[in-house]
Structures are given as structure tokens and as C-alpha cells.
Specification:
This protein has 312 residues and is an alpha/beta fold. The chain is built from twelve helices and nine strands. The strands form two sheets. A five-stranded parallel beta sheet has the order 7-6-5-8-9, covered by helices on one side. Helix 2 crosses helix 12, helix 3 crosses helix 4 and helix 5 crosses helix 6. The relative contact order is 0.16. The structure holds phosphoric acid mono(formamide)ester (CP) and norvaline (NVA). The site of phosphoric acid mono(formamide)ester (CP) has 9 residues, from helix 2.
């Protein structure tokens, strides 16, 4: 059966140690002896939304694994003129060996997966961003100098996600909490509490329970190992920019808030960042920030994800 990566929970807890070990190996041996796990394969990359990191890391990653990335601009395919996802997914499946998609509604990527006979990888939807949180978790294992089973080093660690607690990254952390056995606290305005539909998806996946919502940011970050934030204005939400800036300021990750977490706490941000809004420049560029390895690790982790999907 064709295997897709649409939700964080599409890999089982048992598979994670091998996946993370593969990512570490890809990083350590980059440029030397990368196994050509996509040799002779062509992978489509279909983007309905802007991207810097995701687009480049997938394109480079597919190339480094011996495959050929086919970059598809929606507006220049017949999708842009109304051809159906069902027909497009079948056509793509006849030409290519896998498909990476960034789109708006999560239902659209589910439709691609339903009609495609090749693996479909979620490169961000309005609902979630699983490749990002896998790379984030990998970055944390490095920061904590984990050896052996890297994934076990995440167990019991407290991650606090601040700001827009109803965005794709927040949903991803809800799903990741149970999978990685982390304590995840979402802290944002009450009106941005995670919507029941998103929570239901985590419940269905059988991994809910280890996350909570705390509107008091100072209280939320007590004892935290990781502070995480994302833009307050996700792609497609531009109309709400000014209103969000007013209501989310108490959730800015700045030195005062950072000081309330553990002294050794680290800071993560998926990027792009808007310094002075969701995070202060001091924290973003400061010694606790892991944003540069975090961004680079997208490449290594995605190479592991693609290799795992191609092998099944
Ligand atoms: N973090 C992330 O997905 O960045 P891009 O939007 O640049 O791909
Ligand atoms: N929540 C952000 C993530 C960008 C990587 C967005 O969807 O725009």
C-alpha cells in the first residue's frame, strides 16, 4: 500500500529511532557517501503558497538522494484552470515516484493522497506542518547531545508554544506531544485556543493527552526546556494582521519571558520570523536560539522521511 506523510503520527513511535538515526547519518556524512535512496526517481514539488526553506531543502534533498525534483507551479499547471485534484493526482502518479505538496486546506492534500498511487508528503497545510516539527525535534536531540536512541531524549521535556495557538505549527505540536512523549503547553489569547476539530484529529490519532492550554504566558513557561513561537500572521491570514498584533503582544518571546523558563532553555522558531512581534531581536539572535541549525536540519530530516517512504 502507498505510504503518505500527512500527519505527524503517520510514523509510529517504533519507527522514530531509526528515522532520526538516518537523519543524523545524512547530516554527518553529507557529501561523502549518501545512499542514493531515490536513484532513478522523479519527485514532484507542488506549491500553492510561498516558501524558502521547504522548497529549497526538498529540492536539494531529492537531488542529493539521486532523484530528480520536478518543480510545479500551480498556476502553470491545469490545476490553476480548474482541473480536478483527482485527475491530477492520477496523472502525476503515472509520471513520478512521489509528490511533495504545500497547500491551503488540509482536505486538498488528503484528496491528493486518496487518488495518487505514489507517496504524498505534507510540506505545510493550514492545519499542520509535520516535516517542520520532526526537524525541530531532531534539532533538540542535537542540542541535548543525545546518543543511541535519539528520540528517547525528548521524553518528558516541556515545550511551550506561544502566540497563535490555533495555527498549523500549534496543531503540529499537539500531535507531536503524545508521539514524542513531550509535555506541550500552548499559550496564547483565549480566543485562539486550539479549535475542537484540530483536537479531535489528535484524539483520533490516539496521541492526545500530553498537551494543555494556558493563557497566562508567565505561568506557562515556568520550568520550560523549550520556548517555541511562529508568526502571528500565517499565510492567508494577512487581513487579520493589525488585530492580531494588539492581542498577541503579551505572548512575545523576549528576554523577560525567556528568563522565566529553565536557565538552560532553548528557543526555536520555524521561520520566517518577524523580530519585534512574536520574538524580540535579542532572543532571535541570542545564545539560546537554535534557529540556524533548526532550518538546516529540515534538509537532513526530510531526506530521511523521503528515504523511508520510498522504501515502502
Ligand atoms: N519553516 C518553513 O516552512 O519555511 P518556508 O515557509 O520558508 O518553507
Ligand atoms: N504558520 C506559518 C508557518 C510558516 C512556515 C504559516 O503558515 O504561514
Amino acid at each position: 500500500m502507498t505510504r503518505h506523510f500527512l500527519l505527524e503520527t503517520d510514523f509510529t513511535p517504533n519507527e522514530l529511532p531509526e528515522l532520526f538515526a538516518m537523519a543524523r547519518s545524512f547530516k554527518t556524512h553529507r557529501g561523502n557517501s549518501t545512499p542514493p535512496t531515490l536513484q532513478g526517481q522523479s519527485w514532484g514539488m507542488l506549491f500553492y503558497k510561498s516558501s524558502t526553506r521547504t522548497r529549497i531543502s526538498f529540492e536539494v534533498g531529492i537531488h542529493e538522494l539521486g532523484g530528480y525534483p520536478v518543480i510545479l507551479d500551480v498556476q502553470h499547471t491545469q490545476l490553476g484552470r480548474g482541473e480536478s485534484i483527482a485527475d491530477t493526482a492520477k496523472i502525476f502518479s503515472g509520471y513520478m515516484h512521489g509528490l511533495v505538496i504545500r497547500c491551503y486546506e488540509h482536505a486538498a492534500i488528503e484528496d491528493f493522497a486518496r487518488f495518487a498511487t505514489i507517496p504524498v508528503v505534507n510540506a505545510l497545510t493550514d492545519f499542520n506542518h509535520p516535516c517542520q516539527v520532526y526537524a525541530d525535534c531532531f534539532t533538540l536531540t542535537e542540542a541535548w547531545k543525545a546518543e543511541g536512541d535519539l528520540v528517547s531524549s525528548l521524553k518528558g521535556k516541556k515545550l511551550v508554544f506561544l502566540g497563535d495557538t490555533n495555527c498549523n505549527l500549534a496543531h503540529s505540536w499537539i500531535l507531536a506531544a503524545g508521539l514524542f512523549e513531550m509535555e506541550v503547553v500552548l499559550s496564547g489569547p483565549e480566543s485562539f485556543a486550539p479549535d475542537p476539530h484540530s483536537v479531535a484529529i489528535a484524539d483520533q490519532a490516539g496521541f492526545s493527552g500530553s498537551w494543555s492550554f494556558e493563557p497566562d504566558a508567565a505561568k506557562a513557561v515556568e520550568g520550560a526546556d523549550v520556548l517555541y513561537t511562529d508568526t502571528w500572521v500565517s499565510m492567508g491570514m494577512e487581513d487579520e494582521k493589525e488585530a492580531r498584533k494588539q492581542i498577541m503582544m503579551p505572548y512575545q518571546v523576549n528576554t523577560q519571558l525567556m528568563a522565566k523558563a529553565k536557565p538552560e532553555a532553548v528557543f526555536l522558531h520555524c521561520l520566517p520570523a518577524y523580530a519585534g512581534l512574536e520574538v524580540s531581536q535579542e532572543v532571535l539572535q541570542g545564545p539560546q536560539s537554535l534557529i540556524w541549525p533548526e532550518a538546516e536540519n529540515r534538509l537532513h530530516m526530510q531526506k530521511a522521511i523521503l528515504s523511508a517512504l520510498a522504501a515502502t
